[in-house]
Each structure stands twice: as structure tokens, then as C-alpha cells.
Amino acid sequence: MAASVTAQEDAAIRGGDKLVLRGLKFHGFHGVKPEERKLGQKFLIDVDAWMDLRVAGRSDQLSDTISYTEIYRIVKEVVEGPPHNLLESVAELIASTALKNYPQISAVSVKVGKPHVAVHGPLDYLGVEIFRYRSIDAPN
What we know:
Blueprint: H1 7-14, E1 18-28, H2 34-39, E2 41-50, H3 54-59, H4 68-79, H5 87-101, E3 107-114, E4 126-133, H6 134-137
Antiparallel strand pairs: 1-2, 2-3, 3-4
């Protein structure tokens, strides 16, 4: 039987403290089309990492939290790293790496957008957003 998160747990996590990284931009070579693999394109990334920030708020010490630069580094390595066919795979690797590397993160949301897509019509970007819980996706 698959693990699940109750509505109460979900509300507690999503309503809690989090680190927020918005509008990260990187050039990568992800996609299924040959031109995406050859020329690459810009990707836009947003990350929310839920964790208790009370101790850091009281202590004012970086050692009591996770540096934004550490999450940024994970995103940069994944997006600028080996190509993936799907944005879902890019987002999954970012989320799973954050959960694996930082046990204090209880959940993570990753949004991956492609602003330059072959769609006839105006748009800001197309993409995916995933939400992963430590209790389900990275248990001890």
C-alpha cells in the first residue's frame, strides 16, 4: 500500500515556513526535439522548500537553516547538466536531490518552465510543477 499524506498534514506543511527561490534562469539542453538538444534554450525555475525556520529566525545563524545558494546550486547542476527528454524528469531530479541532501526539508515544490516553445500564440511559458513530500518520496 502506498504511503499518503493526510489533508491535515498537507495543510500544515504548505502553510508552514519555507525557503523561496523565484525566477532562476539557466540555459539547458532538455527536450525531445533534436534542435532542443543541439541549440538548447532558457529554462525558468521556481523552488519552494518547506522546513521549520524558527531556530534560524531566533538565532540569526546560517548554520540553523539551509543557504539559498545550496538549493540554487542543485537547480543549476540539474538544468545545466545532462539532458532530459521531459521537464517532469528535470523537476523530479531537482526535488529528489534537495530532499536527499537536506533532511530538514519536509516537502519541496519545483516549477520548470520553457518560455520559448513552438506554440502558435502568446504565452509567458509552458511547463510543469511538482510537489514532493519527504514522508512519501524520500523516507528514511
